[in-house]
Design brief:
The protein has 207 residues and is α/β, with parallel strands linked by helices. The protein has one domain: Rossmann fold (3-Layer(aba) Sandwich), CATH 3.40.50.360. The protein is built from five helices and six strands, in the order E-H-E-H-E-E-H-E-H-E-H. A hairpin with a 2-residue loop joins strand 3 and strand 4. Helix 1 crosses helix 5. The chain is globular and about 50 Å long. The mean pLDDT is 95.
């Protein structure tokens, strides 16, 4: 678990449908968020969720060949969680939904003062797609992550939508538009600010 000393840590769960080593717009925008986090001395790690066997279910460990427990440990150790997802058919990817369902188990994982394990951690979101729907996807993820216990910072998201019914992806851009770059940097900076405040002052005990 994280302590009140040492550098902040961030984990990106990239929820692309493409396994490694395929190029991924979702991973690229996550790395752009991490660029600012690293400038602020945050230690960062990327996990592409589809590379692992994340079993369906809402338990911390579904047994057999379930690889979520290893990812879960990384989530528990991180101060900041970034969920990065593409938009498919107007919704987060199916991989994203699987991750959210597994995070649901943390509602019953309490600390010694009755707080769910994710209370005190920060979550931000990045979204890419060449169709509309980024605002809805962000809203869905914010609600789910906040339900589990994560705190959402001001302007805690960044997204890029390409032209409707076209084939250009975020990773195909010659240059990231200034508005997107600014939103990406702001989400990262605000996440660090909130994570530092939550280290200094925990939420009240639940019991």
């Amino acid at each position: 678990m994280t302590t009140t000393e040492g550098p902040l840590t961030a984990l990106a769960l990239v929820c692309s449908l493409k396994p490694s080593p395929s190029s991924s717009s979702s991973e690229l925008i996550a790395e752009h968020v991490f660029a600012t986090l690293r400038e602020l001395s945050v230690e960062c790690e990327v996990v592409r969720a589809v590379d692992f066997n994340i079993a369906p279910g809402v338990e911390a460990d579904m047994g057999d060949s379930d690889q979520w427990p290893g990812i879960r440990t990384k989530v528990l150790d991180a101060d900041i969680l970034l969920i990065s997802t593409p938009v498919w058919l107007g919704h987060p990817s199916s991989v994203t939904q699987r991750v959210l369902e597994r995070l649901d188990a943390e509602l019953s994982n309490k600390d010694h003062e009755g707080r769910p394990a994710m209370v005190g951690k920060v979550a931000i979101v990045s979204v890419v797609g060449n169709e509309d729907g980024a605002h809805k996807v962000v809203a869905d993820l914010f609600q789910a992550l906040n339900d589990v216990g994560f705190s959402i910072p001001a302007q805690g998201c960044t997204y890029w939508n390409g032209e409707a019914m076209q084939s250009t992806d975020y990773k195909d851009l010659d240059e990231v538009p200034e508005a997107i770059a600014s939103a990406t940097a702001a989400a990262a900076r605000n996440a660090v600010h909130l994570a530092r405040r939550l280290r200094d002052a925990k939420y009240p005990a639940y019991e």
